[in-house]
TrEMBL record:
The PLAT domain, residue ranges: 954-1062
Region (Disordered): 165-184, 828-855
Organism, as annotated: Triplophysa tibetana
Protein name: DENN domain-containing protein 5A
Family matches, as CDD domains: PLAT_RAB6IP1 (cd01757), RUN1_DENND5A (cd17690)
Length: 1286
C-alpha cells in the first residue's frame, strides 16, 4: 500500500503528499486474491534471476519474498496546474519493487528513499518516500497467503524429486546448480512457511512527498515525524491533516540565499537555499558516496559520466542508488547530464537496459551478491558500479582525468579534514561513529598524549581506525602531507556561533560544499579561457537552429592545441559530448548576464575572478595545478544562514473539520480527509505572514531559471530544438507499459541511432577533409590525430550500441565481435566442402580490380574472415571489445567497413537467431541507410589501424619492376633494398635477381616513406634501368609505389649505384574514375599539376613564374608541416624529396636557362656546383678581396660539397644534389648558397642571359622565400644522409 503526499505549487516546499499500497476491499474472496497475486507477481531484481530466501538454494521465490502490484491510495491535492500528477510514475518509483509482505520474524524497519521524475523538457521533480510495514487485518489476505505457501511448498517438493532436465545448447536459461542432499518437505516448510494461527502478517505501505526542489533532509524529517505520530503511544497535539496542510500550502520555498524554519509534528525543521552566486542546491550525503566507493573509484565514475559512457549503478538500497547518481551529476557543475537519467529503474522497466544510448541508471540488486548472474545487453562501453561491494568495472581505454594525482590529493585533504578515509570503507558506519565521538579538533589540543598540534592525525585516528593502513598507502601514493593537513575544527566547539541544526547535519553541509568547490574549481581552471574559442553564429538565431547539427559552436582544434599534452586524451573526448555542446549552446544563446541560466552565470563569474587574480593572457596555458581557494567563503555563507534563520513559516493549526474527522487507529497510517487538503487557503492571511506575494512570485521565476533552465518560451523552444539530437528520451514513460508503448520506445531508439550515425559520419568526413571542406562552408580547418582517434573511438562505441540493441542472448562483452564470431563459425562450416583450388589471397584474373599496379601486385582478396584472422593473430589484443575495435579500424583503413558489415548482415538466418524482431539490425530500411552512411568513409584515407597498432608484426611484399624496353634479363649484379616508414626501417634486404620480389615480416613501419635501392655492381652486365618499386602491407593492403625511371650503373645516366626513392600510396579504384580523396601523406595538391605532368625522364620547360610558384608551394608545404602538432606531422622526406618537393623545385631553378652542350653527353647540375666549388676554393687561396660574410658562406659550401663527394655511398650526381639540398635546408644555409651562386662567375659562363639565376629581382625573392625555413628545426630521415659525417 503506497501512500504519497505530493505538493505542487512552485512557491511552496512540497507539491503533493500521497500514500501508496494495496486496497484489500477490492478482493471478494481468497481465490480471487490468489489469482490477483499470481497474475501481478513481479519478477524481482535483474532479469528474473531470483535469489531464494532459503539457505543458498536457488528455488523459485517463496510468497513472502515475492512482490506484488502496488497502487496509489490517495494523493493531495488532486492536481496542480503546472505539475500534473503522474500516478503511474509516482506509484512505480515510491515502491519500485511493488508491495511486499513480512511476518513478525522479519526486520521491518522503516526505509527512506528518494527518487526523481524527469520530464521531456529536462526539468525535474523530486520524490521522497518512507516505506514501513503495517499489520494485515484482512482474514482473506492472511488465508490467501497460507494457501500460496501450501502451493509453493508442493511445487518445490516436486522439483526436488523430479529427474534433472538438460537444456539445449541454445537455451539461454541458466541451469540450476546440483542440489546434493535432498531436503525433506518438513525442512522446506520449516524455512518457507507462514502459519495463520502462529504468525502475524505485515504489508508494506509508503508515504511520499513530491517537491520541485530537492530538500532531502527536511523531507525525510517531515515523513519520519508523520510516521512517528501514527505509531507513537502519545497522539500528536493536532490531527495529521493539519501538518500535511501546513506543508502543502503554508511552508514557502526559502528565497535564494536564505534559510527557513517550519514546524514538523514533534520538532522544528530547517532548510536553507544557496544564493544565486553559490553552487546550486544539493542536499544529499557526499560522505556516503566516498565511504561506499572510495575516492579513486568516485573519480573514475566521474570521468565515465563526463564522457557520457553508459553507467549502471547496482545496489540493494534504493537510497544509495539515488545518492550516488545525484552526487556524480552534481559534481559535474557547470555541465549537466543530457541523456537518460533513471537513478531507480523500476522492476517492470528492465527492458530499458537495452537502450542503445548513453544512460545513467540504477538497478536494484535484490540482495544478490553474484555479479556474474546479471545478464546485461551490452557491456562494451559500460561502467558497472557495484555500490554495496565497493567495486567498479570500467570500459576499456578510459582516459585519465587531467592532473589526476594532484586532484586526488586535494580531495583527500578535504576528506581527511573531516576525519574521513579517502578509501572505500565497508565498516563506514562503525568508523563514522568512532570519529564522531572523538573529534579531531580535540586531538589537536590534547597535549597530554604527546600529540603535536601540527600533526593531528598521528593520534587516535591513526591508531584506531581500521582502514588506516590502506589510507597511509594512499597518502604515500598521492603525496598528501599529513603534517601540513589542516584539520577542520568542529563547528560545535566554536562558542561564538550557534548553528540551529544538528552537529551531524552541519558537518554534512560543510563537507558537501568543500568537495563540490574542489570539483568546480577543476573545471574553472581547465576552461578558464573557453569564451575565446566559442564560435558565435554569423546568421540569425532561427537559421542557426535549423542548421544546428551541422554547425560548429566551439573551436576545438585551437582549444586543444593550447592544452598541456597529458590533458588531450580526456579533453578531446569530452569536447565531443552532448553536455559540452549544450553548455556552449547556452553560452551562445545568452545576450547578457541577466539572460544567463544560473549555472552559467555562477561559472562565468568564477572564470572572471580567476582571470583577475592570475592576469593571464587568453591563450597562455599552464599545467601547474592550482588549488581551490573558495572553500572557506562557501562554508561561511552556509554557516551564516544556519546561525540566523531568515524566515519562519506559519505553525500548523486546526482546520475546519467535522466532528469525528481526523481520528485514526493506532499503528495504521489513515486515509486523510481530502476535502480539507484539496485546496489551499482562500485568503492570503497566512501567506502574507510567511512570505510576501511579491517575494513568492520573484522566487518562482528564479526557480524556473535555476531548475528548469529555461527563461522564457522562446528559450525553451530553442533549447529543445538545439538539444533534440538523439536525446529526446530523458526517462522512460512510466505509465502505460503496453507492447505498443515498448515498441514505440524501441522505434525512438532506432531513429535516434540512425540520426547519430548520420551526424557522426558527416562530422568525421568534414574533419578529415580539412581545408577543402572549410572552403565548401563546413566545419573547422584541421583535425588532430587525438581528435581523429576520439571520433573513431566514438564510432566504435556507436557500432557496439547498434549491435547490442535487441539482442536475444548476450554472449561476451562485445556484441559486434560476438556476431562476427558466429558468422566466422557458420562460414567456415559451409566452406569446409572443397570448392575451388585457387590459392588463398589471390583473385582470379577476371575478378581483378583495376589498379595502378595491377601488373606487378594483384590486389588482395576482399575477405571479412581474413581480416578477422589478422586481428585474432595479434597477441597484443586480449579482449573481445579490443578485437572488435581493431577490426573496425582495419576495415576503415581498407575502406571496407560498409562492405564488410553488409556481408555480415546478409546472413539473415543468423540475424534472426541473434536478434529480436524490433532490433535495429532487423529494421531493413534503417539498416540500409546506416550502411550507406558508412560508405561515405571511403572518400577519405584513414590510417587509424596503422597509426594505433605500432608494435605488431606485419608481412610486407616487395616487387622491383625493371623497364620493359631494356629489361633486366641480362642483369648480373645482386640487388638490395632498405624500406623505411614513419615508425621504423627494415635495414638492408637482399633481393633474388631472378624473381625481383621478396616477402618479409617486420614490426609495423607505419606509413612508408622511402626505399633505398642499389646493387653490388658485380658481373659482366651491371647496368639496370628500374621503372619503380612496389611495396604492399599484407594486413591493411596499402600498396606504395616508389617511382624511379633511372639507371643504376657505372658510366650510365649519372653513374649512380644506389638511389633513394620517395613513395606515394596507390589507390585501388573500383572504376577508371579516380574517387575523391585527400592523400594525407602529401601537401595539398600543388598548383603545378595544372601546368605540367612529367615523367621522371623528361625535362619540362617551365617559365620563371611557374618555377617561383613551385618553390613557394614546396616551402609552404614545409611551413604547414611544422604548424601541425608534432604527433600529426607525417613524413618530412616527402615534402623535401617527393613529387613537387623542395629538391624538385630547386632543380627547376638550376635547370632554367642552363646551357646544354650540343656534342657531348648530358651536363648535370652537380657538374656546375663542382665547378663553382673549385672557383670558391681558388678564390679563397688567392685571397681575393671579399668580405668576411662571403668567405664564410663559400667555406661552408665547399665543406659540404667535399663531404658529399667523399661519401662511400655510390649515389649519382642527382642523388648528391638531393643530399646537398636536404643538408642545406637542415642547417638553414640554402638562401646563403643561392646568393653566393648567383654572383659566381661560373654562373655567367654556364647559363643563358634569360636564366632565373641571372635575374637579380627573382633571385632576391627566391632568397626571401627560402629564409622562411630558418625558424624550423628540420630533422632528416637517416636514409637521406647515410655516410655523411656533417
Amino acid at each position: 500500500m503506497t501512500s504519497c503526499l505530493n505538493c505542487v505549487a512552485s512557491d511552496h516546499v512540497r507539491s503533493f503528499f500521497l500514500s501508496c499500497g494495496s486496497v484489500t476491499e477490492q478482493f471478494g474472496d481468497t481465490d480471487a486474491l490468489c489469482q490477483y497475486i499470481q497474475a501481478t507477481k513481479f519478477r524481482d531484481g535483474a532479469r528474473g534471476q531470483l535469489a531464494s530466501a532459503s539457505e543458498g538454494e536457488n528455488f523459485e521465490q517463496s510468497p513472502l519474498r515475492r512482490t506484488f502490484k502496488s497502487k496509489v491510495l490517495a494523493h493531495y491535492p488532486d492536481n496542480v496546474e503546472w505539475n500534473p500528477f503522474d500516478q503511474d510514475a509516482v506509484g512505480m518509483l515510491c515502491m519500485p519493487k511493488g508491495l511486499s509482505f513480512r511476518t513478525q520474524a522479519d526486520i521491518r524497519e522503516p526505509q527512506f528513499h528518494s527518487f526523481i521524475i524527469t520530464r521531456e523538457d529536462g526539468s525535474r521533480t523530486y520524490g521522497f518516500a518512507l516505506t514501513f510495514f503495517e499489520e494485515v487485518t484482512s482474514k482473506q489476505i492472511c488465508s490467501a497467503m497460507q494457501t500460496l505457501y501450501h502451493m509453493h511448498n508442493a511445487e518445490q517438493y516436486d522439483i526436488l524429486h523430479a529427474p534433472p532436465m538438460h537444456h539445449g545448447l541454445d537455451d539461454p536459461r541458466p541451469a540450476h546448480p546440483q542440489l546434493h542432499p535432498t531436503p525433506s518437505l518438513s525442512r522446506l516448510q520449516r524455512f518457507n512457511s507462514y502459519d495463520i494461527s502462529r504468525d502475524t502478517l505485515y504489508v508494506s505501505k509508503c508515504i511520499c512527498l513530491i517537491t520541485p526542489m530537492a530538500f532531502a533532509h527536511a523531507c525525510r524529517k517531515v515523513l519520519e515525524q508523520l510516521h512517528q505520530a501514527v505509531i507513537s503511544s502519545q497522539p500528536p497535539p493536532l490531527p495529521l491533516e493539519s501538518y500535511v496542510y501546513n506543508i502543502l500550502y503554508e511552508v514557502p520555498l526559502p528565497p535564494a540565499g536564505r534559510s527557513l524554519k517550519f514546524s514538523g509534528v514533534y520538532g522544528s525543521i530547517l532548510c536553507q537555499r544557496p544564493s544565486t552566486a553559490e553552487l546550486p542546491l544539493f542536499d544529499f550525503h557526499i560522505q556516503e558516496v566516498f565511504e561506499l566507493l572510495g575516492l579513486e573509484n568516485v573519480l573514475q565514475l566521474f570521468t565515465c559520466a563526463l564522457l557520457e559512457i553508459q553507467i549502471l549503478l547496482y545496489s540493494q538500497h534504493y537510497q544509495r542508488l539515488m545518492t550516488v547518481a545525484e552526487c556524480i551529476t552534481a559534481l559535474m557543475f557547470p555541465f549537466q547530464w543530457q541523456h537518460v537519467y533513471v537513478p531507480i529503474l523500476p522492476a517492470s522497466l528492465l527492458h530499458f537496459l537495452d537502450a542503445p544510448v548513453p544512460y545513467l541508471m540504477g538497478l536494484h540488486s535484490n540482495g544478490q551478491d553474484d555479479r556474474t548472474k546479471l545478464e546485461l545487453p551490452q557491456e562494451a562501453n559500460l561502467c558497472f558500479v557495484d555500490i554495496d561491494n565497493h567495486f567498479i568495472e570500467l570500459p576499456e581505454d578510459l582516459p585519465q582525468f587531467p592532473n589526476k594525482l594532484e586532484f586526488i590529493q586535494e580531495i583527500s585533504e578535504v576528506l581527511l579534514a573531516f576525519g574521513l578515509s579517502p578509501e572505500a570503507n565497508p565498516q563506514c558506519s562503525e568508523v563514522h561513529t568512532k570519529i564522531r565521538s572523538f573529534r579531531s579538533a580535540d586531538v589537536v589540543s590534547d597535549k597530554r598524549n604527546g600529540n603535536l598540534a601540527g600533526s593531528p592525525l598521528n593520534s587516535f585516528l591513526l591508531r584506531e581506525n581500521q582502514t588506516i593502513a590502506r589510507l597511509q598507502a594512499l597518502v604515500k601514493r598521492t603525496g598528501v602531507s599529513l603534517e601540513k593537513l589542516d584539520v577542520k575544527e568542529d563547528a560545535s566547539t566554536n562558542k561564538d556561533t550557534k548553528v540551529q541544526c544538528g552537529e551531524h547535519e552541519f558537518k554534512m553541509y560543510r563537507l558537501n560544499i568543500g568537495v563540490r568547490e574542489v570539483f568546480a574549481n577543476r573545471f574553472t581552471q581547465m576552461f578558464a579561457d573557453y569564451e575565446v574559442f566559442v564560435i558565435q553564429p554569423s546568421q540569425d538565431k532561427e537559421s542557426w537552429f535549423s542548421n544546428r547539427d551541422q554547425m560548429q559552436n566551439f573551436d576545438k582544434a585551437s582549444f586543444l592545441s593550447d592544452q598541456p599534452e597529458p590533458y588531450l586524451p580526456f579533453l578531446s573526448r569530452f569536447l565531443e559530448t552532448q553536455m559540452f555542446a549544450s553548455f556552449i549552446d547556452g553560452k551562445i544563446l545568452c545576450h547578457d548576464d541577466e539572460d544567463k541560466e544560473h549555472t552559467l552565470r555562477v561559472f562565468d563569474s568564477r572564470v572572471d575572478k580567476i582571470r583577475m587574480l592570475n592576469v593571464r593572457t587568453p591563450t597562455l596555458r599552464t599545467s601547474m595545478y592550482q588549488k581551490c581557494t573558495n572553500i572557506d567563503e562557501a562554508e561561511k555563507a552556509i554557516e551564516m544562514r544556519l546561525c540566523k534563520i531568515d524566515h519562519t513559516a506559519l505553525h500548523p493549526h486546526l482546520l475546519d473539520m467535522k466532528i469525528g474527522q481526523g481520528r485514526y487507529e493506532h499503528g495504521f497510517f489513515p486515509r486523510l480527509q481530502s476535502d480539507v487538503l484539496s485546496t489551499g487557503p482562500t485568503s492570503n492571511k497566512y501567506a502574507k505572514r510567511s512570505a510576501p506575494a511579491q517575494w513568492r512570485r520573484r522566487d518562482r521565476q528564479k526557480q524556473h531559471a535555476e531548475h528548469l533552465y529555461l527563461d522564457n518560451d522562446q528559450r525553451e523552444k530553442y533549447i529543445q530544438e538545439a538539444r533534440n539530437l538523439g536525446t529526446t528520451l530523458r526517462q522512460p514513460k512510466l505509465s502505460n507499459l503496453s507492447p505498443s508503448v515498448i515498441a514505440q520506445t524501441n522505434w525512438k531508439f532506432v531513429e535516434g541511432l540512425l540520426k547519430e550515425c548520420r551526424n557522426k559520419t558527416k562530422r568525421m568526413l568534414v574533419e578529415k577533409m580539412g581545408r577543402e571542406a572549410v572552403e565548401l562552408g563546413h566545419g573547422e580547418v584541421s583535425i588532430t590525430g587525438v581528435e581523429e582517434n576520439t571520433l573513431i573511438a566514438s564510432l566504435c562505441d556507436l557500432l557496439e550500441r547498434i549491435w547490442s540493441h535487441g539482442l536475444q542472448v548476450k554472449q561476451g562483452k562485445s556484441a559486434l565481435w560476438s556476431h562476427l564470431l558466429h558468422y566466422q563459425e557458420s562460414k567456415e562450416k559451409r566452406d569446409a566442402t572443397p570448392a575451388g583450388l585457387t590459392p588463398p589471397g589471390i583473385i582470379h584474373e577476371t575478378e581483378r580490380r583495376k589498379s595502378d599496379a595491377s601488373s606487378a601486385l594483384p590486389p588482395l582478396k576482399v575477405s571479412l574472415i581474413r581480416d578477422m584472422r589478422h586481428i585474432q593473430n595479434i597477441s597484443e589484443i586480449k579482449t573481445d571489445v579490443g578485437k572488435a575495435r581493431a577490426w573496425v579500424r582495419l576495415s576503415m583503413e581498407k575502406k571496407l567497413l560498409s562492405r564488410h558489415l553488409k556481408q555480415l548482415l546478409s546472413d539473415h538466418e543468423l540475424a534472426k537467431k541473434l536478434y529480436k524482431r524490433y532490433a535495429f539490425l532487423r529494421c531493413d530500411d534503417e539498416k540500409e541507410q546506416f550502411l550507406y552512411h558508412l560508405l561515405s568513409f571511403n572518400a577519405v584515407d584513414y590510417f587509424c589501424f596503422t597509426n594505433v597498432f605500432t608494435t605488431i608484426m606485419i608481412p610486407y611484399h616487395l616487387v622491383i619492376i625493371p623497364s620493359k624496353k631494356l629489361g633486366g634479363s641480362m642483369f648480373t649484379a645482386n640487388p638490395w633494398v632498405c624500406v623505411a616508414g614513419e615508425l621504423a626501417e627494415t635495414g638492408v634486404l637482399q633481393v633474388p635477381r631472378n624473381t625481383l620480389e621478396i616477402t618479409f615480416e617486420c614490426q609495423n613501419l607505419g606509413k612508408l616513406t622511402t626505399v633505398q635501392m642499389g646493387h653490388d655492381n658485380s658481373g659482366l652486365y651491371a647496368k639496370w634501368l628500374v621503372e619503380s618499386v612496389m611495396v604492399r602491407n599484407g594486413i591493411t593492403g596499402h600498396t606504395y609505389k616508389f617511382p624511379c625511371g633511372r639507371w643504376l650503373g657505372k658510366g650510365i645516366d649519372d653513374g649512380s649505384l644506389e638511389r633513394i626513392l620517395v613513395g606515394e600510396l596507390v589507390t585501388n579504384t573500383e572504376s577508371e574514375e579516380r574517387m575523391c580523396r585527400t592523400p594525407p601523406m602529401q601537401q595539398s595538391p600543388g598548383m603545378m599539376r595544372r601546368f605540367v605532368t612529367i615523367s621522371p625522364n623528361s625535362k619540362p620547360k617551365l617559365n620563371t613564374g611557374q618555377i617561383q610558384e613551385g618553390v613557394g608551394e614546396a616551402i609552404n608545404g614545409i611551413v604547414k608541416h611544422f604548424h601541425k602538432p608534432e604527433k600529426e606531422r607525417g613524413s618530412l622526406t616527402l615534402l623535401l624529396c617527393g613529387e613537387y618537393g623542395l629538391v624538385w623545385a630547386l632543380e627547376q631553378v638550376f635547370q632554367h636557362g642552363f646551357k646544354s652542350p650540343r656534342l657531348f653527353k648530358n651536363v648535370f647540375i652537380w657538374d656546375f656546383l663542382e665547378k663553382a666549388q673549385v672557383y670558391f676554393e681558388s678564390a679563397e687561396q688567392s685571397q681575393m678581396t671579399q668580405d668576411e660574410n662571403w668567405q664564410m658562406r663559400a667555406r661552408h659550401f665547399s665543406h659540404f660539397m667535399r663531404a658529399i663527394n667523399s661519401t662511400p655511398r655510390n649515389i649519382g650526381k642527382d642523388g648528391k644534389f638531393q643530399m646537398l639540398v636536404c643538408l642545406g635546408a637542415r642547417d638553414h644555409l640554402l638562401h646563403h648558397w643561392i646568393a653566393l651562386l648567383a654572383e659566381c662567375p661560373i654562373t655567367a659562363q654556364m647559363y643563358e642571359d634569360t636564366a632565373l639565376l641571372k635575374d637579380h629581382s627573382l633571385v632576391n625573392s627566391l632568397i626571401r622565400v627560402l629564409q622562411t625555413l630558418q625558424e624550423f628545426n628540420i630533422t632528416l630521415e637517416a636514409s637521406l644522409v647515410k655516410g655523411i659525417g656533417i
